[in-house]
Amino acid sequence: MNLLSIGGSDPSSGAGIQSDVKAFAEFNAYGLTVITAITSQNTSSFGMIEPVSQKILKNQLESIISDFKIDGIKIGMVFNSQIIKTLYHQLKKLKIPIVVDPVLKSTTGGILIERTSAIDFKKYIIPLATIITPNKFEAEMLSKVKIDSKSNLEKSAKIIQKMGAKNVIITGVEEKNNRISDFVLEKNTKYTISGNKIANTNHGSGCNYSAAIVFAISNNKTIRESVRFAKEFTYNSIKNAKKVGKGIKITDIQKTDEINSELSQAINEFVRIKNIYKNIPECQTNFVYSKQKPKSTKDILGISGRIVKAGKEVTVAGNLSYGGSKHVATALLTLNKKFPHIHSAINLKFQNTTISKIKKSKMIVSRYDRIQEPSNVKNKGSTIEWGIKSAIKNMKESPDVIFHKGDFGKEPMIIFFGDTPKNILKKISKITG
Q1: Are 360 and 432 in contact (CB under 8 A)?
Q2: What is the pLDDT of residues 366-391, one digit of tens each?
Q3: By the number of CB atoms within 10 A of the CB, which of 295, 302, 398, 412 ranks highest?
Q4: Going from the N-terminus, what domains does the chain have, and what CATH number goes with each?
Q5: Which residues of 84-101 are buried (b: 16+ CB within 10 A; e: fewer)?
Q6: What kind and span of H or E run contains 176?
Q7: pLDDT value at residue 415
Q8: Is the distance from CB of 366 to CB of 359 less than 8 angstroms?
Q9: For residue range 227-279, what is the model confidence (pLDDT) as tens digits?
Q10: Which residues are within 8 A (CB) of 431 and not within 5 positions of it... i.e. 6 or more apart?
């Protein structure tokens, strides 16, 4: 996945394009950048701003857009009308998600947009936004509404939405009991997502939030799922903020779980496989990856929902979590006990043509017959464990695939197994290529 950050350069790497590149790397996305302005700032104070020329800005955009497939764009600091209009003319025809983070003022005190450019920002940048993510201060500045009540919070969001943004998220609205919320206004719905507040001043949390939003929305997550993901990511970055310089803390992005990163990347690749929708079963698909020596399904990362088919498209409904899968995780756990090097699995639709392709590719295949399942096993609800044990009972080498042809009211199924999610994708490519 390629994500483009358009914004100012922060030499302290607390915010701006430097912060975005760090976040994108954490998501296993490739970070591209277009610089709108050079700033001099640190953790204690804000110095100068020097905007780039219209010529170099346009040339940066053209060079990136002509060479890369861009999956999502984040727009941060734009500073003046010349930059605003250049961005608009270069981006207005693109059919990809754009997240606008209306950075108007730096945490260290710098004004990040010329006052005379506010009208052009509203006219040209806000209409580009798939999502705009102002904090409370920025929302008040844009809407000219003092947010001192729930009704004014909604009023502010609606005014910004009427400027052209498809979805508005006003962040950082303080609540009682040490909670902080984000108010979300979509096209036909509105809601609030709350979380715990961390009482410290930091540099970079807004950038982390919008970077996480653009990653999630470009990964086909819903607005609600994207907000939850961004809120958790930002909370952790604030919680781990470090005093790097002499002034305020800079948010720190802790290295994420590598299992999560690998599985997330594999799922991104899986949903993009041509015609993969033909291999999604009625019960939908889950893709799992376990820790070393898993003891239960809680040690296995899976989707707390499913990979679902919507027409000829495939999308992920739910987030990755340990214990998120029951059936596919149980199959993997059972197989892992005999073959400890196997750590990943995915279920696909049973089709005779698929089985033929699997056998022709010389993958190791086994099966079990659900009709032969003992009634006491069926009553206990341990069918999968019984089935996998039956399929591998006499095997000395781990299978690539185990399948069954179903039973009364039970859908037939194919499960691929591998040591890593990447290895599973290689096996799937043999039946879809």
Answers
A1: no
A2: 999 988 888 777 767 678 999 999 99
A3: 302
A4: 2-256 (3.40.1190.20), 259-432 (3.40.225.10)
A5: bbbbbebbeeeeebbbbb
A6: none
A7: 97
A8: no
A9: 888 888 888 777 777 787 888 788 777 666 789 888 988 998 899 899 999 99
A10: 279, 354, 357, 358, 361
